[in-house]
Amino acid sequence: MNAKKRFLRVVPLMAFMLLLAGCGEQGLTALDPMGPQSQWIFDNMLLSLYVMALVTVVVFVIFFIVVMKFRQKDGDNDYPEQTHGNTKLEVAWTVIPIFLLAILAVPTITGQFYLSVDAEDIAEEEEETEGAGDVDEEVDEEDLQDDAYVIEVTGHQFWWEFDYPEGFTTGNDVYIPAEEEVVFQLEAEDVMHSFWVPALGGKVDNIPGVTNHVWLEADDPGVYMGKCAELCGPSHALMDFKLIALEEDDYASWNEEMQQEEEEPEETLAQEGREQFEDQGCIACHAVDGEGSAQGPTLTNFGDRTTIAGFLENNEENLRDWIRDPGALKQGVNMPASPGMEDDELDAIIAYLDSLERLDDETKEDIDL
Amino acid sequence: MVSEATNTRKKSVLWDWLTTVDHKKIAILYLIAGTLFFVKAGLMAVLFRIQLIAPEMEFISGQTFNELVTMHGTIMLFLAATPLIFAFANFAIPLQIGARDVAFPFVNALGFWLFLSGGILLSISWFFGGAPDAGWTSYVPLASREFGGLGIDFYVLGLQISGFGTLISGINFIVTIINMRAPGMTMMRLPLFCWTMLVTSMLIVFAFTPLAAGLALLMLDRIFDAQFFIPGEGGNVVLWQHIFWIFGHPEVYILVMPAFGIISEVVPAFSKKRLFGYTSMVFAVLIIGFLSFMVWLHHMFTVGVGPIANSVFAIATMTIAVPTGIKIFNWLFTMWGGKIKFTTAMHFGASFVPTFVLGGVTGVMLAMAPVDHLYHDTYFVVAHFHYIIVGGIVLGLLAGLFYWYPKMFGHKLNETLGIIFFWIFYIGFHLTFFVQHILGLIGMPRRVYTYLEGQGMDTMNFISSVGAFLMSVAIIILVINIIYSALKAERITEKDPWDARTLEWATSTPVAEYNFAQTPQVRSLDPVFYEKIHGNGEMKPAEPLDEIHMPNGSILPFIMGVGMFIAGFGFISFHMDLFISPYVIIAIGGITFFGAMAARSLQNDHGYHIDKETVESMEKELS
């Protein structure tokens, strides 16, 4: 009996786990956690799932007994015994759920602090160090590095801007060092967005006029997919981004590289493209190395990107289509179509954009970018 | 009899329905309007499920998709579920408490016409440059003038007007239930459906008022350039979310509580047993009603209000599971030891219990605030609330439809077609929504019009869409059933075709316009059942047979609805290029509305009396 009961409890769970096993793309799904935060969330999700599965099984068992056993037989028209209730039973199913909820209430509270306090503390510390920075800048900058690595995330319709403490900016791709807690300071430019990397942790909203924080940590170097989780307009569905975690050394050298001035492109076509980039007015919205306006995503490391605009595979054909008419691919974007651009001008710009690389090939291979 | 009958026959059918203040006819108006909106919003769901059937489909654009999901959610909650609940509430409450009508019949009619004019105002947005597109929650700044389309003006005004209708109907139900119970019907003998509607009506009064305030602020922002919700101008974005969810969370209970009530009528009736633990059920309803106001922040765990607020609201939210659990087990033990008759109504009534549990347990999972950072705004949430809304509210409403149908229309719905409908709908429902739990966990945010190939979402979205098609096939079968039954089904005249328990089954079928010729004397909970066992099977009258005072019909509620519609359209037209000034339109609408109101105030309408002889002959004819 006992074994049977236990079996009944396990069956739906097993079925559910089997169902989950084949699910989702690595680096996206929250069912395959890849950082301490997502691991915590996943474990507690399972805890609540087990408790709730227990409740469900009890209800289902009673339900099936009832519908099997207590059907009216043909010709039996007598009324069954009319009971008013049963105080003991009613007390039981009031008290037992309270115990079950208590089991869940403890991690709910501790977890809420585990997930959010750090970010706020760190932000405070940062303010303090910044304030004290006037007195002794060097020492405090070091402190800042030790205490929290804060990347500013700004949500735009429909792309992501990432500002690093070292002063440079990336768009749609964010790089972090692996095995290190990184704090993301969340803001929004136009409407609400929500910053979410499912494999690494929970989402927190980007709200205009409000500053939020979330910390994330990746156990291993790799590429993690991120999404916007708050409805932000027609192309909300396409507001994806990539979070790229690098080995500490790789990150340091990438970071160093990003701070350097851009080198003159080697190819002549790319050189021509650079001129076109200015002549065609691309630079009015897209900065490269901090030069130009930051109205649109920065293109400093465009050659490293796996995607155009966060969702299109980064290849020549797609890039051509994108520059010709971005609105056709991503409804509501601010980038204007360029119907008048000559093919050779376009080729040059594409060559130039592809030349904008800041990651070495070895690192790219390591993380399978 | 003769004079009355010729009197009604002289009026055209249309005029009769436009002017009626009879709660039974208003119930049918609500039922028809609610069903039409339900089918409309369902079709929208089918359209966007076609878009999501495969990755990167190009069936509809992102903009259209947002308009469709916004309208689907808004219509389903405000213009389908609410009126359908009001349909049954209007029909059943006066009958269940032994009253001749609701407390304010005129207001009741006004409530319906305001609801309908608001609903139509919202619906015509498609013809004026697009429907609202900021989600049914209309979060600012997406819903502000700067970022949102003209459609959101229709959302604001349409919901405002239909909300007024809901609000006055709620007040009407409270007064009716508190004041108009038959002699002997103490509060603790009140049928559970009336209890749930009483609590629901109180929630309406306390929840629709903040909604009205919020919508008014949003209207000021959008039409008169105020800055309540504009960041950078001193406004606050999160303010809207607080106001919206202070309304929005109770709203869920406004819809699901009457479903609880219907199940608490249907399950005992077809189990032939008294509701198990009646008293604890009543207290569970009251506690749920109270707690529903304490938990709005659980919709905002990711907004960043801090760990303390999140924790408090998380625990408060979990607490709701306790009274809900009490109800679940009480229903199960009502059936336990009973003699269950599986009619179509009971199929829906019984299947409600486990289905609602599935929605409830994910509710507790969602209440764990830190884990909610994973679920929030994903398909997991979509799955959860559809298990509550379809698995709870819709199953409850369908149970109520099959249960009360013979009393409302004088014939049963076809049982064979009904059971086929049940199974197709039920299977379709689980196919559609169960997989969405997993879709959410593997990273599918809600309100996305497309998803990329190769993210592991293809199969489950396909299954989900197929389920949605099955559900629409089921609804077609329901419509066929309604038409078929209207043509073929045997007319019934028996008072109590289900061998049921509560007072509505003591009236004649069809119900006379005055409901009860003599107000019944209630001697117990489940009065009709009590008289079957302890009496002669007839209710004892509490008063001698005498002439009956009835209210006159009136066209004024309809005119007031039209006036509100015109005025509402006037407010929207500030941002349209019309040949006529918005102020003129608002003035026309305002004069129509307030003119009708003045006419009502100045009119000396004492109603009319049906004399004793007429009542006697009508009763003879009906029995």
Automatic annotation (TrEMBL), chain A:
Pfam families reported in the protein's UniProt record: COX2 (PF00116), COX2_TM (PF02790), Cytochrom_C (PF00034)
Task: Tell me its EC number(s), please.
Answer: 7.1.1.9
Domain called Cytochrome c: residue spans: 268-357
Could you tell me where this protein is found in the cell? Cell membrane; Membrane
Tell me where the transmembrane regions lie: 48-70, 91-115
Q: What does this protein do?
A: Subunits I and II form the functional core of the enzyme complex. Electrons originating in cytochrome c are transferred via heme a and Cu(A) to the binuclear center formed by heme a3 and Cu(B).
Family affiliation: Belongs to the cytochrome c oxidase subunit 2 family.
Listed name of the protein: Cytochrome c oxidase subunit 2
Taxonomy of origin reads:
Bacteria, Bacillati, Bacillota, Bacilli, Bacillales
Give the gene symbol.
coxB
UniProtKB/TrEMBL annotation, chain B:
Q: What is its EC number?
A: 7.1.1.9
Report keywords, A-Z.
Cell membrane, Copper, Electron transport, Heme, Iron, Membrane, Metal-binding, Respiratory chain, Translocase, Transmembrane, Transmembrane helix, Transport
Q: In which pathway does it act?
A: Energy metabolism; oxidative phosphorylation
Q: Is Mitochondrion one of the keywords?
A: no
Q: Which GO terms describe its cellular component?
A: plasma membrane
What are the protein's GO molecular function terms?
cytochrome-c oxidase activity; heme binding; metal ion binding
Enzyme class, first EC level, given as a word: translocase
Q: Which reaction does it catalyse?
A: 4 Fe(II)-[cytochrome c] + O2 + 8 H(+)(in) = 4 Fe(III)-[cytochrome c] + 2 H2O + 4 H(+)(out)
Q: How does it sit in the membrane?
A: Multi-pass membrane protein
Q: Which InterPro entries match?
A: Cyt_c_oxase-like_su1_dom (IPR023616), Cyt_c_oxase-like_su1_sf (IPR036927), Cyt_C_Oxase_1 (IPR000883), Cyt_c_Oxase_su1_BS (IPR023615), Cyt_c_oxidase_su1_bac (IPR014241)
Start and end residues of each Cytochrome oxidase subunit I profile domain = 9-523
Q: Which family does it belong to?
A: Belongs to the heme-copper respiratory oxidase family.
List, alphabetically, the PANTHER family matched: CYTOCHROME C OXIDASE SUBUNIT 1
Q: What is this protein called?
A: Cytochrome c oxidase subunit 1
Organism per entry: Salicibibacter cibi
